[in-house]
């Protein structure tokens, strides 16, 4: 688990370094902020349709082999991009194609690597392992963003892509040496197809089985609802807080950089707290999301940058713990043979939020301003979660009325 965490830190740092440089590269090629957003959407879009297929592949194929191959393919994409940049042959079309291929590979790589980490600890420690993963992700994000500027400044843009390629190769080299922990949930690869009677086995590796499980599982549907509404009306702090800081609070780019740093620190603290969770639940995720929404409402009323900074830290901590708890529920609730497909369904659903959330929030900001968007969004999140909780409570407490005739017959 320590080796896996180190490998993930290196990989995350390389990925965030490349993402940071990629945005700068698109701006350099086109001079358009819209093109930058388009490149990010092109990389995320394959998950909308292909995540369910990627999840099925993770359930069907040996997990270590799947993760190693996907990491190696991502390294090839990074090296290809680096070579094109170094030769000054990279144009916008090539960049978009490479971004789309990266998104396709990620539909397999993301669930494979997520579930591989869970195989390295006993079943009861999976929530803690997910918390450690969140900590590594946030630390890698900070390191990658910092290294991007240094690397480009001293070695050039191509060096960032080369570094990311080597980070993928490092993960690929570590994977063969990983061993499942005693007491870990075993991932048994089962073949699909039909049995001797011409019928499909009960645990056949079908995409439809994963979708059906997700749709019939109230806990997962509730988790999707809480996460979705929070993603659309909150948490896009890179957009809402940027406009709030540079607009009503009259701060500059440096002030927003300070806010972003506090958000990152809060994410790390939240990941540390999330790693201590033993029995995460959807109710806990909802309570934390509602708490974060109320903090968002108060942040929208901040009279100064100092007050906003005081509120941003707990906002980030609550968001991080909530995300860790939700991920733990998502990865432990389904049976082992279905977890890849459930994560695939979640990837498709999450892509809808990530693609549709920023435009919806941007429209809200146009109508209500940055303060109004934060306040309105927070109230919508908190009210929706409260309404869902009340509805669930009423449904579970509804008395069951038995007819007298049925009781007498039974007697």
Give a quick precis of the structure.
By secondary structure, this protein is mostly helical.
Please explain how this structure is put together.
The chain is 79% helix and 0% strand. It has helices at residues 2-30, 33-44, 46-60, 63-86, 92-118, 126-155, 157-174, 207-215, 218-233, 237-246, 253-274, 282-300, 305-332, 339-397, 404-410. The N and C termini lie far apart (59 Å).
Q: What is the fold's blueprint, element by element?
A:
Blueprint: H1 2-30, H2 33-44, H3 46-60, H4 63-86, H5 92-118, H6 126-155, H7 157-174, H8 207-215, H9 218-233, H10 237-246, H11 253-274, H12 282-300, H13 305-332, H14 339-397, H15 404-410
Helix pairs in contact: 1-2, 1-6, 1-7, 2-5, 3-5, 3-14, 4-5, 4-7, 5-14, 6-7, 6-11, 6-13, 8-14, 9-12, 9-14, 10-11, 10-14, 11-13, 12-13, 12-14
């Amino acid at each position: 688990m320590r080796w896996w965490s180190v490998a993930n830190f290196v990989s995350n740092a390389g990925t965030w370094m490349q993402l940071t440089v990629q945005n700068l590269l698109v701006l350099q090629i086109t001079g358009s902020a819209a093109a930058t957003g388009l490149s990010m959407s092109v990389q995320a879009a394959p998950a909308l349709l292909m995540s369910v297929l990627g999840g099925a592949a993770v359930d069907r194929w040996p997990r270590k082999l799947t993760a190693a191959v996907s990491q190696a393919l991502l390294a090839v994409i990074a090296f290809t991009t680096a070579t094109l940049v170094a030769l000054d042959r990279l144009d916008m079309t090539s960049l978009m194609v490479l971004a789309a291929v990266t998104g396709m590979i990620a539909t397999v790589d993301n669930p494979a690597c997520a579930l591989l980490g869970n195989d390295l600890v006993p079943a009861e420690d999976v929530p803690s392992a997910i918390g450690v993963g969140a900590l590594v992700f946030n630390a890698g994000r900070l390191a990658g963003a910092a290294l991007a500027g240094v690397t480009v400044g001293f070695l050039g843009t191509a060096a960032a892509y080369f570094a990311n390629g080597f980070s993928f190769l490092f993960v690929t080299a570590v994977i063969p040496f990983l061993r499942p922990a005693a007491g870990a949930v075993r991932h048994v690869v089962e073949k699909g197809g039909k049995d001797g009677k011409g019928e499909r086995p009960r645990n056949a590796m079908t995409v439809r089985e994963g979708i059906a499980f997700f749709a019939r599982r109230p806990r997962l549907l509730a988790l999707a609802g809480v996460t979705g509404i929070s993603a659309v009306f909150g948490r896009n702090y890179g957009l809402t807080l940027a406009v709030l800081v540079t607009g009503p609070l009259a701060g500059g780019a440096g002030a927003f950089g300070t806010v972003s740093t506090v958000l990152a620190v809060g994410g790390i603290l939240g990941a540390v707290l999330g790693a201590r969770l033993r029995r995460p639940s959807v109710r806990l995720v909802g309570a934390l999301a509602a708490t974060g929404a109320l903090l968002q409402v108060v942040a929208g009323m901040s009279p100064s940058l100092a007050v906003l900074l005081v509120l941003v830290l707990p906002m980030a901590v609550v968001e991080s713990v909530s995300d860790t708890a939700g991920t733990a529920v998502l990865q432990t609730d389904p049976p082992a043979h279905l977890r890849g497909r459930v994560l695939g369904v979640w990837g498709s659903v999450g892509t809808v939020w990530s693609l549709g959330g920023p435009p919806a929030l941007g429209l809200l900001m146009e109508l209500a301003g940055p303060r109004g968007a934060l306040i309105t969004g927070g109230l919508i999140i908190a009210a929706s979660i409260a309404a869902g909780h009340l509805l669930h409570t009423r449904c579970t407490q509804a008395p069951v009325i038995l007819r007298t005739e049925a009781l007498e017959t039974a007697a």
